[in-house]
Amino acid sequence: MSNSKKSANRDPSESGHSKKESIDRLTEQYLLDPTKVNLIADIIAFSRSQRRSIQLALISSFNRIFVKQLKRRVSISLDGDNGRLNELYLEAINVLKLFVKGNQNKVVSALALTCLIKFLSIESSKTVRNSDEFKFPTDILNVIIDALLGRGDDTGELLNQFEEYLVYDDVRYFTMLHIFHLLQNGEPDVERNIFQILKSLQKTFSAAVTLENKLHFINFLCRHNHTEELKPGKVREHRRLFGNLWAKFLSSFRDSGLHKPILLHINLVIPLVSSPALFADFLTNSFDRGGAIALLSLRSLFVLLNRHNVNYPDFYAKLYSLFLPTVLRSSYRSRFFHLADLFLSSSHLPAYVVAAFAKRLARLALVAPTDAVSLIVTFILNLIRRHPACRPLLNRCDVTNNNVADTNGEVTDPGDHRILPNLEVIDPYLPNEPDLSKCEALNSSLWELQTLRQHCNHSVAKATRHILQPLGLKEDDISELLDLTSETNLDRELAVKRLKVVDVPINMNPPNGLFDSNDVYSFTNT
């Protein structure tokens, strides 16, 4: 038995320092005589150790041995036929994969990933540039992707390291292809990591489309003289594959915790795919769920409806149902009102639809937090400016005055503004009617805004002053009101100039001292 075999057999009893020395000695011996390939097997035998120093020594050894062999253009690869050396190369790759996938030490994982990426880069450069054959080292790339996906929830730093190579168009293309195959086979345990890689793919793909030729990609890691003739070199192929990959992911993910992050990100994906209609089912199903999920799906759904001719029956009825008191206290309130403003900006909407939204918002204003009331009032007035057919909602007095009756059925004087007992206001609006054409909003009035004119908050009372004045055509800007909070609203109130009062009355009679002479706490000199 050789000395190297003996060293391998002594491995379990050796100290960490002696093991590291053994790895370094075996590495030097192999580099001096590359025909002794069994020395690599002795080095790999140390991979059973859990010591950080041993693992780092192994990574260094693999790097020195195989980088040198790859640069010599020795025929070793994961699918090569160089016998024993190929087998050992495969074993070393698997050891590095385990270090990336399951090692708790981030330094070890990062260095192992660096070593794998270096192998990928060198194997890519081995392709003969002038050859008609294009052979990308997908095997080593798939090993890297599988290791990252199986890592767990702390892939952030490693993924950032791998993202530097996703700028290469061929690496990005074959990464998408491998993940698509994984999704076809079902990988439920790695959905979160797949989503992280998809976000990295979107970022690098978006940058490549912006910087490079609109029809072809030329930034290849695996060099070739005719990249424009290859699938990885065609922008339309990238768009097609990227769209299919996302569609497959959206139809297969089961982790409910990913739903909101996906909806927040998908609007960045839509411009990069060739068929955005692939996302229609996912977005419409999300919109139908209601609540925060529906609010987050609005932006992307708006793009599909507005730019890609996607049809959604009863869309405005569903949007109408989302206007609930809960949305006013949601963290997505500003996003929701911004998108609702876009949806209701068309001048071709029927008057009864606009009236229904205006009336619904007016009712919400009565129960809304103070920081949201100004936004709602401005929103309503802008709707009426866009749609003159709804102006009678402001001007009509039949509902609020003429049809005011007491419980005995006797109509009171419209000019009598006294607070009388047993009065009922007859409002034909049906707030629980889901059909916009049947809710009678167009026959009602915005008496709620008249009520808000007496609001204690200065900004709310100021916003409702327009209801007694002729409305102009120019709309008010709601952008400043979208992010208004209770704190900023209070600051604005405090900034309003008030009449200066020199002596603020705090007592009926001016006091002569801190305590009255008859007070039990008063002190007198005796």
Verbal overview:
The chain has helices spanning 3-9, 16-32, 38-44, 52-71, 84-102, 106-125, 138-149, 156-163, 169-185, 191-211, 235-252, 259-269, 280-289, 291-307, 315-321, 325-328, 333-343, 351-367, 370-386, 392-395, 398-402, 447-452, 458-463, 479-482, 486-495; strands at residues 404-406, 423-425. With 526 residues, the protein is mainly α. Strands 1-2 form a two-stranded antiparallel sheet. α5 (84-102) crosses α6 (106-125) and α5 runs parallel beside α7.
Give, in order, the helices and strands.
HHHHHHHHHHHHHHHHHHHHHEEHHHH
Low-confidence stretches: 1-13, 397-423
Radius of gyration: 36 Å
> Which percent band covers the strand fraction?
under 5%
| Class computed from helices, strands and strand pairing | mainly alpha
What's the main sheet like? Answer: 2 strands, antiparallel
Number of DSSP helical runs? 25
What are the salient characteristics of this protein?
mainly alpha, 526 residues, 56% helix, disordered N terminus, two-stranded antiparallel sheet
List the helices and strands and how they pair.
Elements: H1 3-9, H2 16-32, H3 38-44, H4 52-71, H5 84-102, H6 106-125, H7 138-149, H8 156-163, H9 169-185, H10 191-211, H11 235-252, H12 259-269, H13 280-289, H14 291-307, H15 315-321, H16 325-328, H17 333-343, H18 351-367, H19 370-386, H20 392-395, H21 398-402, E1 404-406, E2 423-425, H22 447-452, H23 458-463, H24 479-482, H25 486-495
Antiparallel strand pairs: 1-2
Helix pairs in contact: 2-3, 2-4, 3-5, 4-5, 4-6, 5-6, 5-7, 6-8, 7-9, 8-10, 9-10, 9-11, 12-14, 13-14, 14-17, 18-19
